[in-house]
Amino acid sequence: MMELVTGGSGSGKSAYAEDRICALYEEYRKTGKKEQKLYYIATMYPYGTETEEKIADHRRRREGKGFRTLEWYTNITEKIHQFEASGEALGCVLLECVSNLAANELYMEEGAKDEAVRVVAQAMAMLKKKTQYLYLNFMVQLHIQLNRN
């Protein structure tokens, strides 16, 4: 199952997605399949005070919820391969956030640059295939320009 959670900055999408994936994870564990783990893929790169504060806030909010945090800023497909090669398997995953991942792929030195859309889409498809439950947060900012002739 995959769910895309959208909203603006500060809209509560992260808290909503955390609550939902945790509830699904607990239901899954009740079936006796305890081998699956709960993962939080963090994509926000700490490039300054503002992002460092946001990251700290997110860490505080997920404290005690059982998440194992994976700080993956770019090239998620390769990181999944490396992760699985180490004997681990993704079970229930919250990816926070697709918008950050796309920006990282576009602008970070190690990012995919012109291939960013393909790389992010490929990563989402792989995550969907390899997880039991997948929540994707996606920040949306709507910009409307009216042209009057």
State the main characteristics:
149 residues; 5 helices; 5 strands
Task: Round the mean pLDDT to the nearest integer and report it.
Answer: 91
The share of residues in helices is 40-55%
Q: How many strands, what sense, and barrel or not for the largest sheet?
A: 5 strands, parallel
User: Nearest-angstrom radius of gyration?
Assistant: 16 Å
Please write the string of helix (H) and strand (E) elements: EHEHEHEHHE
Low-pLDDT stretches: none
Would you tell me the structural class of the helices and strands?
alpha/beta
How much strand?
A: 15-25%
Count of helices?
A: 5
Walk across the major sheet and give the strand order.
1-5-4-2-3
Number of strands: 5
- Alpha carbon gap, first and last residue: 46 Å
Overall spatial form: globular
